[in-house]
Fold each of these.
Amino acid sequence: MVERSGVLAGGVMGAVVPVFLGVLGVLVANLPVSVFGGLVPSPLLALMPVYFWTLVRPDLMPPVAVFGIGVLEDLLSGGPPGIWAASFVVCYALIDRERDTFAGLSGVGAVLGFAAAMSATAATAYAIVSVYYWRFPPFALLLVEIAVTVLWYIPGAAFLNWVHRRFVGAARSEF
Amino acid sequence: MANGIWKLGRRGGTQLPLVIVAVLAVVLILLGKAQSSIFDRARASVTDWMAPALQSIRQPVQGMQSWVGSIGEVFTVYQQNLKLKQENARLRQWQNAALVLESRVKRYQLLLNAVPDPKLSYRLAHVIGRASKPFLETMILDAGKSQGVKPGQAVVDPGGMIGRVFLAGDRTSWVILLTDLNSRIPVMIEPEHAHAIMAGDNTLAPTIDTLSQGAQIKAGDQVVTSGDGGLLPPGLPVGTIVTQGGGFRVALLADPSTTEDAEIVDYQTALEQVPSVTPGDMPASVAGMPPAVPQPPVTIAPPPPAAIPGMPAAGNASASHQAVPGAAPRANQPGAQQTSPPQKTDDDNEDHPE
């Protein structure tokens, strides 16, 4: 009985936490707080939970949730609508297609895997923006944002790992 | 980390939702391109809703940043004090010269029956949000429609112009900075009076995109708003011309990354005067319009005598911005009749001209 209630609580929490952290990542990344005085773009924090749980628990990070997190990022960042929503969806499709490759990575390889996903997301956004405005925006700031986001993923992944073990856990079918 | 210590989740069943959200994303992009007002309203509503939280976050962050910034200044405070004293003395001389020239210009305008200068009023607002992203440079101010803010208004700080309002909610407004990829404003380069378009490209110094033919500009020339198009007031200081890579860029006077308070410029162009009907004009009914209703005559008092330099003038034309009325004084002969639309005065505004 105790085990059943624990699983139930974990299920409810597991259904909420990944998407909640994605939304939280959007909010935090768009707060008027700048550690480097606005010289460095804020990291794309929302992509971390999207990447993490798309790999380990894709049932808790469905495409609709990824799309919603992207729309919220568009809404709060001030840019044209749909840019980050489409980029997140492309990133999700990439991870979904190459999940075996990404999930087999560990240590530095896991960070490089996230860097690849972040690069794909940024490249998609860059392509959409280029078509949207019909000119090429400067690439340097995007590279800086990729680097900052990947650096933040190192502590971020440790945090997500802890949250996953503590609140989410593996799927019932995986025991 | 996601290193495969967990068993992989079930993959199946995601293809159809993925295709659906991909289509939705494309539709959202196209919809935003064709009809951005829907998304803008949603964005303004979200920002209005989050404004109290953003304001409460801003205060401790601002305090922390100023505290950290002041640590380094402790060691240079004496040199800064001397420098500021010298600069203050120099600026006082310039202020006196500017006041004398301003009063002289106003006297000349009155003598020449010149078109009155546009009225400017300012609304102070606090910066409660910034977005320094690879594709956009924006900031959020805590003033919106309820404070009279409208899209298109210029935003300045003590240094110069920093951007313009592109979206106004009820209590907040979004500002597109001059450095943003989408920013394009008409400017004039002094002293050549060369008209140009200044375009942002998400770098610190916007480019001079389109320059009037034959214009010769050089590094060090001053850039101000030209007022072309009537959206922005003319003469707002913007920056200085610098050369880079064979082209011209503008080193902005203002630094939006450090701006904490900004002023929103309310620019009111003078209302166009309706020409009076003369006997030679064709009746309006020829154009299928209803005949004009005769307006009650308005008798305007004769203008005060022009001020003579060095002597106090009756009415003191040089003392106030209101000395140059909105009504065209060319018809101000004794007994002349003029029908003019009501002019908005400064008393009608809540704002106070600086």
Note: Residues 36-73 of chain B form the longest helix (38 residues).
Amino acid sequence: MATKPFSGPVEDSVAKVNDEVAVGEDLDFQRKWWRFENAAWIIFTLIIVLDLAGLFGRGPIAKAERHSADGAFDVKYERIERTDSPSILTVQFAQAAIQNGKIHLYVSNSLVKQLGTQRVIPAPQDTVVGEGGLTYTFLASRPPASVDLALQPSGPGIYDFTIGVVGSQPVEARVVVVP
Amino acid sequence: MAAVLRAFFGYFFLVMIVRIVGRRPGKQMTPFEFVLIFFIGGLALTAIVGDEVSFTNGICQIITMGLAHYSLAWARTKSRRFARLVDGTPLILLENQSWRADTLRHMRIFDDDVIASARDSGIKNLQEIDRAVLERNGEISVSRSQQNA
């Protein structure tokens, strides 16, 4: 014989009032929840303000600039990047960076791999692999001259990179990639 | 693995956001709440799926969502406190011919919403209402007073 499908009495866990089905309202809990909600809205607002400021990338706080010690070049980049989001790293060259009508720009492997260099604009005349990175060669006349590296990091993390011009002091910088 | 984690985190994050946003989207859905639901859904989809549009990823993320939902539902049955945290409790909006103004304000519900629900239940004036309760699913249930039954 099959077991009885229903075995528990029909009852309400909340005390009944006047023999009616209890509402089950818990105002004490609800007041605590409203306080929590208010705190959550403040935190949400703070997150959005910080985001607009660029703490999570794409804002004034995220933008950074480094100069080489001898003034041969400047690097403009975003110190806070977002995973899978494109950004531009710009290298601006001074006269000291141009030798015999050419610029030899060294970038470390972390800039190519972890920070995901997608394109180099303009395309280099030549690329040499070695010394833990790539050395691009560009034809150059007189300043102002600049090269853009289109970046698109593939994963979150903290990455250090080195960038330099041959014959000049390299610049080291750190980029935080948020998820 | 990252896609599965994104789906898992995304599910619980959406549960939290929807819980904090309030119960109005549950049943008292007006056009601007439609916008909220579709917009949140679309944005969540973009962030959770990302550029992994393979069939395998779709299946794995759907299963992850199913598992996340199952574990949440299971935890609700095991702990009354957890259930209260996830669902909230019913809230009285009107009782003994008095509005619970504090509750209405905190839940961002107008008296018009209660009156609309009353009309829906065939009640024609406020004196006929015994009690109006905002249920956990966002519905406003209105009971008729005994004298007018």
Note: The helical segments of chain B are 2-21, 24-27, 31-49, 55-78, 80-87, 101-106, 111-120.
